Amino acid sequence: MPNDSAFPTHASSPRASRAARLGASAALLLLGALGPSGCVAGADEEILGVATLPWGSYDLTSSYTGNIDDTRGWIIEWEVPELLNESTAWTAVGQWYYNIESGIYHTPEGWFVYYFGDDNGVAGNHPNCNNQWGSGGTCGGTLGGNLGYLQPGQQVVFRYERCTPAHVADVNGTRICLHVDMKDGTGWQFLAEDAPGTVEMYTHDVEHWATEGYVTPQFSCEAPIKMLRQELKTTSGVWQPMSGASTWSFNQVAPYAYQNRNLTASPSTWESCTPPPDGSGDGLRGEYFANTSLSGTPLVRTDPGVSFDWGEGSPAAGIPADNFSVRWTGEFEPRYSETYTLTTQSDDGVRVWVNGALVINNWTPHSPTEDSVTLSLVAGQRYDLKVEYFDSGGGALSRLYWSSPSQVREVIPQGRLHAAGASCSGVPAWASGQVYSPGAQVVQGGHLWAATQQIWWSNPDCPPSNPASWCPAEWTDLGSCN
Asked: Which end of the chain, N or C, is surrounded by fewer C-beta atoms within 10 Å?
């Protein structure tokens, strides 16, 4: 059962992330907004056009484009989505109307109703809601009631309207009241009130916490986030469905697809989910060396991309925490035909080759540093890629991003990378009855192998041909031949 300590502190509350979002508005303007057809998939949670944000960021938002001061209330109805990473993801789906935020909030424990007010405090809050963020918190759970442990498909309606201090609706009231209807027969429940201040009316349809230890939420397209209904209260006190395609705008800065249903007639009904993998790639071939010179027999694996912050730890079993090096090889495939910027973030040295040309070269010990190059690329065409990196002590960091006029800055995702095979050119085939010294390489069964010790009459394929008692042979599989 969750308690206050199970949730992030107020530093990671929706209000805190809102402040961070406002502080990053200039960066977002530079990146541009992607509309409904601008799906971008596969970014990791730290690099979504708001890479500098240490805590929550909004990946998909929508906002009212009319005159907010001409409204006297707002009704929003959500359908609780299904998370594919239910046991690990933290996220929020909700909305701001003037100074009050509310919505549904997910921790590994489940979904909960939540609200948050402005800094001048919230009066008369619901008894089943805590105040872990100072002016609001999560509801239900250990506090009881029907506001927690929500299930996919459950519908929740939030209503904001002008009210008197006694929580009575009034077109010309000086305060904003927030109510919730769980659609379970209980009816409208009062959550909180606050004085209107900042004029804003938008939803953050996907919010996540971009910090170490949190994962990007993945929403099922079988049970997506659904905005089922929106209504506005006019200055004369009449509730009416939101209509007109120009009254609601969408902004997307992360790897979430959303499909608008009947957008022209009603922009208030739509859904969003995580799209299927973008591209068919498998990542890059990674060769890890226990030295800074990329020499000797490497540990070989396929990495989903170049996006690592090892800190002062080891990158892999058998590789030291300091003084190691890595070579990634393969191909990358851009989405758009336009000028791209490739950017490395490294601590320490880094080199990048594209189609055999050295385009980034900062092969020096240094603190976290970014290096960039611009390239004219063609959509769908594959380009040879090699990235080399070394760590000389202390922190270890290596990332490779791309961006373009149509592409938000992100780590190049796995689906757009194709791992290289092992280079077997000139390597002799394994032969029975031979003596192989440590590090010697042979080709056997379409794979490249390296001897890890002195080997006498041993087969890379286990069991060896002769004698059987020598199995397993001391060979390292360096991957399929290119």
From this structure: N
**75-79, 270-274, 353-357, 371-375: least confidently modelled range:** 270-274
Question: Would you list the domain boundaries of the chain?
Answer: 4-273, 284-419, 435-480
Alpha carbon of 205 to those of 56, 77, 226, 273, 406: distances in Å? 13, 12, 9, 10, 22
The answer, yes or no, to whether residue 466 has pLDDT greater than 70, is no
Q: Which of 419, 330, 305 is nearest to 383 (CA)?
A: 330
Residue 207 corresponds to which amino acid?
A: E
| Nearest-angstrom CA–CA distance, 167 and 194 | 10
Is 4-273's fold the same as 284-419's?
A: no
pLDDT greater than 50 at residue 39:
no
**pLDDT at position 253, please?**
59
Other beta carbons less than 10 A from residue 441's beta carbon: 20
Answer yes or no: is pLDDT of 465 > 50. Answer: no
- Residue burial 42-64, b: 16+ Cβ < 10 Å; e: rest: bbbbbbbbbbebebbbbbbbbbb
pLDDT of residue 136: 86
Q: With H, G, I as helix, E, B as strand and everything else as coil, classify residue 439.
A: coil
Place of tokens 């209330």: 73
What SS3 state is found at 22?
helix
Sorted by sequence, the CB contacts under 8 Å of residue 146 that are 6+ apart come out as 140, 182, 184, 186
Per residue in 430-446, pLDDT (tens digit) is: 777 778 888 788 888 78
Q: DSSP of 159-197, one letter per residue? A: EEEEE-TTS-B-TT-SEEEEEEE-SSSS-EEEEEEE---
The whole-angstrom separation of Cα 359 and Cα 340 is: 13
- The neighbour count for residue 258, using CB atoms within 10 Å, is 22
The Cα–Cα gap between 137 and 105 comes to: 10
Q: How far apart, in Å, are the Cα atoms of 122 and each of 100, 135, 238, 262?
A: 9, 6, 26, 37
* Confidence bin at 33 (pLDDT 50/70/90): very low
- Whether 298 has a pLDDT exceeding 50, the answer reads yes
Pick the CATH number of 4-273 from 2.60.120, 2.150.10, 2.60.40, 3.30.2320: 2.60.120
CATH 1.10.760.10 fits 284-419, yes or no: no
Tell me what the mean pLDDT of segment 382-400 comes to: 94
Helix (H) or strand (E) holding 104: strand 100-107
State the Cα–Cα distance between residues 317 and 255, nearest whole angstrom: 31
